[in-house]
């Protein structure tokens, strides 16, 4: 399967330093920054620095080092923002993909959301 990455997406521009961001954590392969339209007191986006559109793209083509770094960074963000159940009250991870997932930005990002009761995971289908 061939994945197509659009390097004009807004997160690519953030990674190139063309648009500012509110950084929470930066590692060798990963950047985490606050969502500009936060849905909860904690709403951080964790993105790989590499050019990956979706989680399935990332899992197929990223190196082991990138995958390990990204996975550890997501956990670190949970601890840094104190939503980890060990320090706070929990969180939800979301990675939207494609049309049905209602993905707005075509660069893989995991939402780390917490700081309030989030309710049920999905609304009933309409
Ligand atoms: P998704 O629907 O999963 O693609 O979510 C994209 C997210 O990116 C939304 O929650 C937006 O609020 C967020 N977003 C868009 N532009 C920016 C930006 N410049 N800085 C931070 N977050 C952004």
Short description:
This protein is α+β, with helices and mostly antiparallel strands and 126 residues long. The chain contains 3 helices and 5 strands.
Structure description:
With 126 residues, the chain is α+β, with helices and mostly antiparallel strands. It is built from three helices and five strands. The protein has a five-stranded antiparallel β-sheet, covered by helices on one side. The longest helix is centred in the middle third of the chain and has 17 residues, at 64-80. The protein is globular, with a radius of gyration of 14 Å. The protein starts with 9 loop residues before the first helix and ends in a 12-residue tail after the last strand. 24% of the residues are buried. The mean pLDDT is 96. The structure holds adenosine monophosphate. Adenosine monophosphate (AMP) is lined by residues 10, 19, 21, 35-37, 45, 96, 102-105.
Q: What structural keywords apply?
A:
binds adenosine monophosphate, 5 strands, single chain, HIT family, subunit A, alpha+beta, 3 helices, 5-stranded antiparallel sheet, 126 residues
Describe the SSE topology.
Layout: H1 10-15, E1 23-26, E2 30-34, E3 42-48, H2 55-61, H3 64-80, E4 91-94, E5 110-114
Antiparallel strand pairs: 1-2, 2-3, 3-5, 4-5
Number of strands: 5
Distinct small-molecule ligands in the complex: adenosine monophosphate
The CATH topology annotation reads as HIT family, subunit A
- Rg, Å, rounded: 14 Å
